[in-house]
Amino acid sequence: MTPDVQASPNDPLRDAVNLADLEALGRAALDRNALEYYASGANDENTLRENRAAFTRARLRPRVLVDVSGVDTGTSVLGLRLSSPIGIAPSAFHGLAHPDAERATARAALAGGSVMTLSTFSNTPIETVGADAQGRFWFQLYLLRDRDLSRSILDRAHAAGARALVFTVDAPFLGRREANERHRFALPAHLSAPNVASRAELAQVETDSGSQLANYFQNLVDKTFTWHDLDWLRGQTPLPIILKGVLTAEDAVLAAEHGCHVWVSNHGGRQLDTAISSFEALPEIVDAVAGRCEIYLDGGVTRGTDVLKAVALGARAVFLGRAALWGLAAAGQPGVERTLELLQDEFRLAMALCGAARVGDLTPALVRL
Ligand SMILES: Cc1cc2nc3c(=O)[nH]c(=O)nc-3n(C[C@H](O)[C@H](O)[C@H](O)COP(=O)(O)O)c2cc1C
Ligand SMILES: CCCCC(=O)C(=O)O
């Protein structure tokens, strides 16, 4: 995909015809520190590339002569109505992209009838984002070694109106994003992570070797947590729990048995390099779970046909990581709104051209892997 931005002096956002155009705008707005943090995958970035490639390899088997005069892209996740099966994945530090940070993302999700997942490591306090999102948000938890702090974060998320807890399970340690190591990624002095630590604590992080972020993360998160501890987590929050970072049928079955929903993800290729693409992992997970819980997917979603393929194969919704960040960097709230709008329009057209008038009409028969 070659980004082809013909930026008019008036409205580059409106001139963007696809997410690649928005990515070019977003990238151009970032300094090296932020750009490398957003763009990088782990090690050789095989999984990062494979997330895209897997979508492209899958072929569609469209049906014809169906009345598609009124295509409806609407669906729901855990009972929350969405204008289309497209949400926003959690990502840390939106303040690197835009001064409005997570507030811009939350307002865009609200305006677009979507849902935003707020990272534990946001630059904006949970309560502020919750007020902006008006219930259109889920909260992502990194379990901290400090269980009291984790508990208070969970209480705050619930009180702020989060509708689900997304518990990230693929990052007991951060993967090695080598550009960040090489150039010693650091959070700029004007940003903090108010849900978890003060700026002073952040400033004390050892930066002599590698990325400040990896060291900081390493000290904070709990690496002992297992399936046995999930009951403890369940006791800490009344919210439905979604396990984010599941890539196998085995773990998906355990998740369902523990009463959790499943978010198929390899963390955007940022954790274990050469891990399977999320799209390729999806079918065995759908099969194994057999309708016991909802299944979501992220990783490499940039086209309406990607959304269609994932939903046809059993994902309830897909989530955007970097794509939302590029929109945010390009123009704040309107940039994220444009990202959602372009992708939803592509999805609607793809449905029509596949002969599907309702999201419920999307079935595995539409996709040849
Ligand atoms: C810059 C960046 C920061 C991220 N931070 C988090 C995070 O705080 N918590 C989390 O669970 N996942 C995090 N992720 C992973 C995303 O939620 C998501 O799994 C991934 O970005 C999806 O792939 P995509 O970028 O190709 O859409 C982050 C991803 C990126 C790119
Ligand atoms: C300290 C925040 C870690 C965010 C994360 O999950 C990522 O960078 O992929």
From TrEMBL:
Any matching Pfam family: FMN_dh
Please name the CDD domains in this protein's record: alpha_hydroxyacid_oxid_FMN
Instruction: Report whether Oxidoreductase shows up as a keyword of the record.
Output: yes
Q: What's the superkingdom here? A: Bacteria
Instruction: Please provide the record's keywords in A-Z order.
Output: Flavoprotein, FMN, Oxidoreductase
Per its UniProt record, the required cofactor names are: FMN
List residues of the FMN hydroxy acid dehydrogenase domain.
Answer: 11-369
Which family is annotated?
Belongs to the FMN-dependent alpha-hydroxy acid dehydrogenase family.
Q: PANTHER family this protein is in?
A: 2-HYDROXYACID OXIDASE 1, S -2-HYDROXY-ACID OXIDASE-RELATED
**Name of the protein in its database record:** Alpha-hydroxy-acid oxidizing enzyme
